[in-house]
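User: If you would, consider this record:
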Amino acid sequence: MSCERFRDLMMARLDGEITPSDQRDLDSHLAACQSCRREFSELGKITDLVQDLRLPKPSEDAMANYWPSVYARIERGLGWWLLIVGAGVWIGYGVFAFLTNPMMEALTKLLVALPIVGVLTLLVSAIRERCHVSRTERYGRVER
């Protein structure tokens, strides 16, 4: 007799989500299977312990510090986005000037090319790291 189906039914019963017909099937299986009966008893004890847990209410100091930290994170995020957009516009203008002005001095071309090469290097590095992490991630196949 396969106990896997009944393990799911045990969880459904403990969560209060079991149908009457499944309840009857589970009861008859528990009467016949000692290991499932023991497992159900242990699951019931764990459920009782977990139901008694309560999250502590945050202190007034914690609540007073919460919103300023949220606003600081929003401000920092906005600052980074403005910096990235500004750098993108600057680099775009540099590429445009680089391509359309053949008379541009070599030093100016170098000053335009260096940030572009730097950004491309960072982009390639981030893509390589992301590919490596996705292949070696230990919990990649865990269902949520």
User: Anything to note?
Assistant: The chain has a mean pLDDT of 83. Residues 4-51 form one domain. The radius of gyration is 30 Å. The chain has five helices and no strands.
